[in-house]
Amino acid sequence: MLQGMPLRRTTSRLAATAFVCWLCASCTSHGDTTSPPDTSSAAPRTTATATAPQVTLTRASSPLRVTIGQLGDGVHRSERHRLRVAVGAPVAAWFDGAFLKPDYPASAFPDAFSSWTRGAAAQGAHDKDLTTNAALGPDLVALVADKQLATLYIFAHGGITGGATAKVRLVLTGEQQDGSLVHFAVSGDVYLTRDKQRWRIFGYDLQRSKEAS
Amino acid sequence: MTIRVRRGTRIVRRLATFGVLLALLGLLIPNDSHYPTEFTLIKLETAHGLDATDHVVWILALGSDARPGQPYLGSRSDAIQLVGIDPVTHRGVTIGIPRDSYVNIPGYGQNKINAAMVFGGPELTAQTVANFTGITPDYVFVTSFPGLIRMVGGINGITAKVTFNMNDQGQVFHPGMHKFTGVQALAFARIRHGLPAGDFNRSMDQGQLLKGGLATILGKLGRPGFFERALGLLAQYADTTVNPVDLYRLARTVLEVNPARVKVCVLQGGTGYVGAQSVVFPDVAAARSLAADVRHDAKVDRGCTA
Q1: What is the pTM of this model?
Q2: At residue B239, what are phi and psi to the nearest 5 degrees?
Q3: Which of A73, A131, A193 sits opposite B232 (nearest CB)?
Q4: Does the pLDDT of residue A22 top 50, yes or no?
Q5: What is the least distance, in Å, from the CA of B119 to any CA of chain A?
Q6: Which chain A residue is nearest to residue B44, measuring alpha carbons?
């Protein structure tokens, strides 16, 4: 329905989505990537019960790939790996807690915002249908990540890092209780800053969309 | 017979026209049974959040008039703008203070407000503004002429509103939205000759430049890395004691503003002389009234311009 939704905004969102898709696709061709340790488990998360249907979605999730899109002023290139791990860690923790680690069916995501600041977590909980898998969780028996991407744009002044934007894209396939598959993606920006050496998410600008199978 | 032929020809023509119309309608009106889907319109769910302060952030933006070789923190402030941003309501306000405003500078007595930078740097200027208006700035940013030129140039120009025809020292601007280069932005912020209300109009133009700068940056935020690059320029060309972490969060907070909800205000007053000095005698009561109105919500109920 167009009603109630400005066409220009829709068009720009479509364009933005296409741009993010292109961006993430191009990121994978960069050699400068890393996968933070301890991302989602290899097998999809399910809860087996006597009455549960047979789960067919058993492939492993794609690991998170973190790329540096821009290094801040004065940050030495030798810091790239450390920053990928340090700034990528809260993104990995969010992806895991909010989507990948819960046992499905799931209606609670207690670890979703463990890497968010308190204020951001409160707002994220309010937007839980987008910032977590709350909307689909109760209907799923399994969930895998087809893509987990984060490209980091870091701000620094005089070699001291201050914050970063992570352009993220998480493409997921879920198996519903009736055996059908659902494909969707969460993409956009998360804003990170640090408290001493610990980076945390303090803002977000995200969108969720259905994906073609 | 001839008539029949003509009638027959007319009927054929009408049928042909009707056929063409049907064919066109067939092309234009989709038919689910045989037209494949070639366009997709989907609704995206979106969400935005920021862990920001829930009160108005007040920033005192100062432009130093230091000439090459002069310390810009010890020179007079050529532009004095008090900027309030409410990250919750997305409102904003710029309050321009004419540089010749004759006010009390704590510890130095009555003087032009721009002298506070010479006497005590940004801190004393902030204290003077706070005493004068009743609003204590949370942050003070100071930049120089070259700094402004480089910052504007670094983000490939700023688009801002020009109110009056201006023609001064080779720079010509006409009313309407104008895209400024760095050099043009500096000229626009400084020209006062030929303006109907001189320094008051100039102060308004400075506010428009700030508002235009916010709008320009917001318009480019979709470009990957733009925000971090722009903030890097600000950190490079502005003098601030704010550490990079707080600067990043502050900048994200400021960009919560909706430029369409930013009002540009200028403190009013009369002009006159103190000795040989041309000064502005500010309407202190009006200044405090405006400050009281906007202090907690950056919302202007009357006056000021969009």
Answers
A1: 0.81
A2: -100, 120
A3: A73
A4: no
A5: 29
A6: A209
